[in-house]
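Design a sequence for this backbone.
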């Protein structure tokens, strides 16, 4: 049996994926901005939270189920939006959504997917959200919203923290460009040939987007809107004031601003700011089921997973993604039981203490 079929952790999958991918593609998928301090800070923020188990609680039955904007999912783990899955594997986004659906989990599909949103939706058996950039062409932006609604996507996720792509040392060193066989399939007639990913994004994505555009987007359809990339309490409040149904606390996986605050450090202030006015999620450095439990205990409704999904895809296609998602759910369930949490609603702040014992 391969490591991809039976991993102890996502790091087992990462080691296998590293052998499957050319160096410049591995660097693009895994790199961060600048010296990658925020990339490391996201992980360190989880490590700074100790779990404090409760004992003699009946955990003979365990229930990981929750809802995300009304859609029931098998666990509070979701696939974050990531561009160009075909860089990792030829089966690309369709394999990812099949795997997420098979595990009963939510998947968010990127505007810059390497298959069309309709092709991806046709493969889905679980809930899908569509991640959206506000493009310079507002007509094209509206068309993407209409297409997503028609294809059965259940929410729109507006990426707010990438008016331009961050300064990424690894990609600058390699001069990374999309291979000829990978293109943004949702944007007809657009290819990445001859341009870096940053150059391509700068041509397509509108850097003048403001809060007014959140309200505009909210008015285009009846789909709920999640604002992704929020780190400030005031921005979380503005998101809700402009019609957002959810906020994803995210620093773009450390890929935008080197030295930006870690998401788990930003989460408490965001939660305090919005109260129960919207759902709040977190991503960035989620590598273990224990991280998911820490996020829940901190008040997040779900944790979104990014790079490890692409590791699974690179290692073994759909089966590799399923293996990655399963290891999160399995570790989460076992750790919940050991901590005296029979369901996700019982993971509260009393489960946490600052600092990790050596």
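Sequence:
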């Amino acid at each position: 049996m391969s490591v991809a079929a039976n991993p102890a952790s996502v790091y087992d999958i990462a080691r296998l994926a590293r052998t499957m991918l050319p160096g410049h593609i591995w660097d693009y998928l895994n790199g961060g901005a600048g010296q990658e301090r925020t990339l490391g800070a996201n992980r360190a923020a989880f490590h700074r939270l100790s779990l404090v188990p409760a004992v003699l609680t009946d955990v003979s039955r365990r229930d990981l189920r929750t809802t995300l904007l009304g859609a029931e999912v098998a666990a509070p783990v979701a696939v974050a939006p990531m561009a160009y899955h075909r860089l990792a594997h030829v089966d690309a986004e369709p394999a990812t959504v099949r795997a997420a659906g098979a595990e009963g989990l939510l998947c968010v599909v990127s505007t810059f997917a390497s298959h069309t949103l309709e092709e991806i939706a046709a493969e889905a058996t679980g809930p899908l959200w569509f991640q959206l950039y506000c493009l310079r062409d507002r007509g094209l932006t509206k068309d993407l919203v209409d297409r997503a609604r028609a294809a059965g996507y259940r929410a729109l996720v507006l990426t707010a923290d990438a008016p331009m792509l961050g300064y990424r040392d690894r990609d600058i060193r390699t001069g990374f460009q999309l291979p000829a066989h990978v293109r943004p399939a949702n944007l007809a007639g657009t290819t990445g040939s001859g341009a870096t990913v940053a150059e391509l994004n700068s041509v397509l994505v509108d850097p003048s987007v403001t809060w007014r555009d959140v309200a505009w987007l909210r008015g285009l359809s009846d789909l709920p809107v999640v604002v992704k990339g929020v780190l400030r309490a005031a921005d979380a409040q503005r998101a809700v004031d402009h019609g957002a149904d959810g906020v994803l606390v995210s620093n773009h996986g450390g890929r935008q601003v080197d030295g930006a605050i870690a998401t788990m450090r930003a989460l408490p202030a965001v939660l305090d700011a919005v109260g129960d006015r919207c759902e709040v999620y977190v991503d960035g450095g989620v590598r273990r089921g224990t991280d998911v439990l820490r996020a829940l205990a901190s008040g997040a409704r779900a944790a979104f997973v990014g790079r490890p999904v692409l590791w699974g895809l690179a290692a073994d296609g759909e089966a590799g993604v399923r293996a990655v998602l399963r290891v999160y759910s399995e570790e989460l369930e076992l750790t919940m039981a050991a901590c005296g949490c029979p369901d996700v609603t019982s993971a509260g702040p009393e489960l946490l203490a600052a600092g990790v014992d050596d």
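The chain has a mean pLDDT of 95.
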